[in-house]
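Suppose a colleague, Dr. K., hands you the sequence of a protein chain of 247 amino acids and asks what its three-dimensional shape might be. Before reaching for any lab equipment, you can write down a predicted structure in token form. Begin with the sequence itself:
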Amino acid sequence: MATIRFIGSGDAFGSGGRLQACILVEDGGWRCLLDCGASSLIGLKGAGIDPASIDAIVISHLHGDHFGGLPFFLLDAQFNSHRSAPVLLAGHSDLGERLRSAMHVLFPESEGAMDALASLVVLDPSTRSRLGPLDVEVFDVEHFCGSPPFALRVTTSNGAIIGYTGDTAWTDSLYQVAEGVDLLIAESYFYDKKVPWHLDYATLAEAAPNLGARRIVVTHLSADLLGRLDSLELEVAHDGLMIELTS
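The predicted structure, expressed as tokens, is then:
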């Protein structure tokens, strides 16, 4: 059985007091984060989760509310958590360079923590990747972040499948991400306002019957959408939400 826990379900601006994108997938004794926004270390410690117990982190795209927690995570691993093995960091091939630059800006000469405590895994839409017991596939989506963004499709050891859109405007690749999944975690930023590079609730709700997902949970909510929760039919994530998947 796999367990999904939303450490952070908010947008980049802390709307509603929610933490930034960070979703914990537990498969047996293996722990993997889907994204690691800047507030993720706070969220993990607030939930009583030892950061040293995180085996892998998969990054959907290189915006601060999705990968900006990595410098803090790695420095905590160096000075507080005393990790016994490097954490696997999986993402686009640009991840290493962008992370190194972020660490240098935030904490000059801290890059050594990255070299010692992180093992980079390059994800590519043409291949599947194995992270511990998890199979990870990535799909190209539409979200400007200075580097190609991905949606994710993660298969657990018991065959349960999790789809995660990351941040994206509507794109037909989401049909591939969502088809047959046990859980689709989908960005839903505004209610029906169309903004570049993001998915709104109205578009997602219209597409939902044709996506082929058994369960859909929306995340990355703005203040606009948080003000309309009573009118939403799709399930809404919140910080601390736990979901168990038995396949």
